[in-house]
Amino acid sequence: MRCASPVASVSWYQSRCASLALSVSLLAPAAAGAQALDYPVRPIRMVVPTSPGGVTDVAARAIAPALSQALGQSIVIDNRAGAGGVPGTDTVAKAAPDGHTLLAVFDSFISNPHVFRNTPYDTIRDFAPISLMIRGPQLVVVHPKLGVKSFSEFLARARSRQTPLNYATAGAATSSRLSVELFRATAGVDVTLVHYKGGGPALNDLLGGHVEAMIASAGLVLPSVKAGRLTVLAVTSKGRSELVPGIPAVSEFFPQFEAQSWVGLLAPAATPPAIIQRINFDVNRLLAAPEQRDRFTGLGYEIVGSTPEQFVGWIRDETAKWSKLIRDRNITAE
């Protein structure tokens, strides 16, 4: 069994590769217990609250065929895009807690209740975490015409200019916007935010030189970096990433800074623990396959495959960090 080397320095991630095989073996009795419950008894619906083609959709479709075979029932991917994914997420919060409705989420799952008014669910109370499946750093990139070659030069330029640098974001409520806001607050620099309707349009304007900088998922901007059309200055993970060898982490300059993109799998709250453990066992076993590692590395992500308890901790920690930032900086989806 193989897994990708972690890029974060949080304690349980440091030992992820060493412990994955042990975790799977310990979960095997729970998996057998779930089978004794006659689960599943009908097709499973996996809700993806985004449009087809995004990383959440890709992750869901990557595991669905093999997971279907392991569970002995078909898995239907149900894309419920719109309103930041809130309506699609709410359908799972209100679904029967029997393991036949699952939810694949992106990192905006954490921020949505804090940037959208009257979100009808609670991310901690209304869901049962199954597995943090994949995680990847964001990259700080600039257009070459800015003329900076290092993050130190970039900081000096940002602090010396009377006119703030223009940062593209994928939208007012997206992780690319929140990462810039975190950088803004941590580094003490002023910025001008230019919001777009998605990462693609934002990237296009950055490539065209209409904006100067962006903090975005590695999967979105790495092809342009490799083509020499963008300059990468730093990664937002806690440590350096093998995706961009030799590039520093923002945390080397600001130790408290960390922002990562991720995809996880959840079920409605009150889903029986034996079912949660059964799905976790099969999902993590499937994610550990070499072909999945290669697939997600190519997209700028690494395999995590956490336990449900570890995913609970991740959600709580991320909620505490991003909700405070959103509150302190009065960030909204508008």
Can you characterise this structure?
By secondary structure, this protein is α/β, with parallel strands linked by helices. Helix content is 43%, strand content 19%. Strands 1, 2, 3, 4, 5, 6, 7, 8, 9 and 10 form a ten-stranded mixed sheet that branches. The relative contact order is 0.21. Mean pLDDT is 89; it is low at 1-28 and 31-36.
Strand content: 15-25%
Q: Count the strands? A: 10
Shape: globular
Main β sheet profile: 10 strands, mixed
Q: Give the oligomeric state.
A: single chain
Q: Helix- and strand-based class?
A: alpha/beta
SSE order, as H and E?
HHEHEHEHEHEHEHEHEEHHEH
Distance between the termini: 45 Å
* Radius of gyration over C-alpha positions, nearest whole angstrom: 20 Å
List keywords for this structure.
single chain, 334 residues, globular, 19% strand, alpha/beta
Secondary structure topology:
Blueprint lengths: L10 H4 L1 H21 L7 E5 L6 H17 L3 E5 L6 H8 L7 E6 L1 H8 L11 E16 L8 H10 L4 E5 L5 H13 L3 E5 L3 H9 L5 E5 H9 L4 E5 L24 E9 L4 H15 L2 H9 L3 E2 L4 H21 L6
Parallel strand pairs: 1-2, 1-3, 5-6, 5-7
Antiparallel strand pairs: 3-9, 4-7, 4-8, 4-9, 4-10
Helix pairs in contact: 2-10, 3-10, 5-12
